[in-house]
Write a structure and sequence with these properties.
Blueprint lengths: L1 E7 L4 E9 L2 E8 L5 E6 L3 H17 L3 E2 L10 H22 L2 H7 L57
Antiparallel strand pairs: 1-2, 1-5, 2-3, 3-4
């Protein structure tokens, strides 16, 4: 038997899952979306494992965890779902309007050709293209902020801070 619970508030989104199999149970927990940690505990019998699991589930529910029937289909806020649908509809409208705009089509595809015709032949560039400098630039071997402080009074680095007598 497998049970999945989640806790969500302003500061955190956590999950807790327990899987009872035979005379043991495995608890997996962590942040929602992460793999999390897991711990397995062995018992003398399957009844003891189930009793322990029920006790842990009751404890988690008392702390505010709610059971999610199918963790892959966690509940989605209806307002968010509506917002996403509205954005998708607006994008579709904008795209269809842009496709009928001849100036925009000319910018996107400067020389439109008839369907089924071959692409226009392009001559090679008149100048040789040279590769750019690599990005990001190569790492520096030494920090540019390294300060070199000369030894005071002719003493070596090992003699700093020692009294001479």
């Amino acid at each position: 038997m497998k049970r999945y619970l989640e806790y969500r508030d302003d500061k955190s989104e956590k999950f807790w899952e327990i899987n009872v199999g035979g005379s043991s149970h495995t608890v997996r927990f962590g942040k929602v979306g992460a793999k999390g940690q897991s711990k397995t505990k062995e018992f003398d019998s399957a009844e003891e494992a189930q009793k322990s699991a029920d006790k842990l589930i009751a404890s988690k529910k008392k702390k505010g965890y709610a059971e999610v029937v199918d963790s892959s289909a966690a509940p989605v806020d209806p307002a968010f779902k509506t917002l996403v649908e509205d954005v998708i509809a607006a994008m579709r409208t904008t795209i269809s309007e842009q496709q009928s705009d001849p100036e925009l089509l000319e910018l996107m595809m400067p020389k439109a050709r008839a369907p089924g015709s071959s692409p226009p032949h392009r001559s090679p560039p008149s100048r040789v293209l040279r590769p750019c400098r690599p990005w990001p630039p190569p790492r520096m071997t030494r920090s540019p902020l390294t300060l070199r402080v000369p030894a005071v009074g002719g003493q070596g680095a090992g003699a700093r801070g020692r009294s001479s007598g």
